Amino acid sequence: MTRQQFCEQLRDRMLSEPAKVLLHVAMASQFEKPHQFTAQSIVDRAESLATAVLSSVPVTKERAVVLLLLPHSPELFLLQVGLVLKGHVPAILAWPTMRVDTEKYQRNLIHQIRQLPADALATLPGLAQNLINTIPYPVVGCDVENGAAFEKLFPATGVTQHLDSGAFAKSKAELSDDVLFLQFSGGTTGTQKAVVVTAEMLNKQFAQLRQALKMTRDDSVVSWLPLYHDMGLIACFWLPLWQTIPSLQMAASDWVINPELLFRYVQQYRGTLCWLPNFAFSYLSQRREFMQRSYELNSMRAWINCSEPVRQRSILQFGQTFADWGVRPETVLASYAMAETVFAITQSEPGKQLATAPRSGLKRGADGYGQLPFDLIDEVYVSSGKPLAETSVRVVTQSGSLCPDGQAGEIHVCTPSLFAGYWGAEGFQRHTLNDGWHATGDYGFSHQGELFVIGRFKDIIIVGGNNIFPEDVEAMVNTIDGVYPGRAVAFGIEDDEYGTQSLAVIAETKDVYDEKAAAEIEASIRKLVLTTIGTAPRHVAVVPQRWIVKSTAGKISRRETREKFLRERVVPA
């Protein structure tokens, strides 16, 4: 399928029922009455908005890569669609949380996007003014719903740092004509890695999901997932739009503050499909006692656990907590997904309870992996389902040989929706690809045709579905007065209570250890990390010199430092 064919089919599908409401956008100012858009109004307003935004900047390319840095709003959803329909290539950047220091965020933003070849950046008018003299390509202001409230987050002065055009990326590989948009595989921290999504990749993914989920015209999606995440962008926005079924979109920040909103909208809009990261199942269960009313959730046929390893405790607690509201065990499903494959790789079968496998039966093998940067904490592992149609999954040992059934190793995937490599200044980086297979960096096993995901090989910390690179946290902490330079360590600790990982930071003092000074340094670490990346470290320990464990080569060992911390500082995970 070509880009032009995709756009024509999208218009035809939507305009076959022009008066049908396909999009509801809930805003903090009016939760009781979300904005609603019919198929006709989406097409008309999306194209009009895209034209208005690009007409105000000197973009000469017929197909421009446009970075979208906008908060949750009707305009963000419409602009994504409009740019695609007008032949441009949108790419949605993560909007900062309320807890992030926005002055630091603006400075960090420059470094984030310097590796992203782009032709324009669309953002709020005030933020555009702050950035306009810093970024060497056009920056355009875009008014959005509740824009004034979002503008107040940012300082009124511009960013003083300036990078000339030579410091910004210009890709060695031009995007082909069949590209629809970019999405990012990366973390809350770290360099954003751009994944190119073509019309054919997206069309294949839609067909796979439609078949696996047995979708009908009676389905509807309810979501709080942000569009800068593949789960929010593909599963919760583009998929229902393509299937011409309604979706309700609310902001992640509103859901965190008031998780009850999700259930209100499921009941109000008779939601049938809802994707959630594993931690959300635990969080919702724990917030039940604070919810103001009861809800009827029996319309929901698929609560899909995705983006983190599926924890049995989380899904059992969710099912038991909300059984009286209509949640049934067979409606809790699971999926393994990533941006590199557009979205889903596996999907459990609707109407069937998730398969499990005991940890005692897990085989490590003679050619297995050594020390892992995560805990094998579960006594029972939960399946993420079977591979989608035309999709193959294999598990391999360190030497590259195939693992037998039930033996853990690295997960490799092959799918018609597979990316061509990470796109950037150097063109397409294909280091994870080999003969049509993508090495995911995830650790798991296959059993009776189902995939079980345990964790990641890399030291990435996954907190509530967000990837955090420990090197970035360590670099921040090393800037704090009183911390011994180069003696900070960040790692993840499994959090059974919330069904996710929590962030831990260890830092050695530069001077002789003093409890009062250590407490002040700890407070500085907590504040800096929270305001910079928007995630609060749950554990912070300021320790005397030589406490952090080093290897025989003199390098800091995260794994051994983490083990020492678990032994000496907290109850073992």
Shape summary? globular
Number of helices: 15
Strands of the largest sheet, in order across it?
A: 11-12-13-14-17
Count the E strands: 29
Range of strand content:
15-25%
* Main sheet makeup: 5 strands, mixed
If you compute it from the alpha carbons, what radius of gyration comes out, rounded to the nearest whole angstrom? 23 Å
Would you give an account of this structure?
The model has no long low-confidence stretch (mean pLDDT 89). The longest helix has 19 residues, at 515-533. By secondary structure, the protein is α/β, with parallel strands linked by helices. It has a 5-stranded mixed beta sheet with strand order 11-12-13-14-17. Strands 18, 19, 22, 23 and 24 form a 5-stranded antiparallel beta sheet that branches.
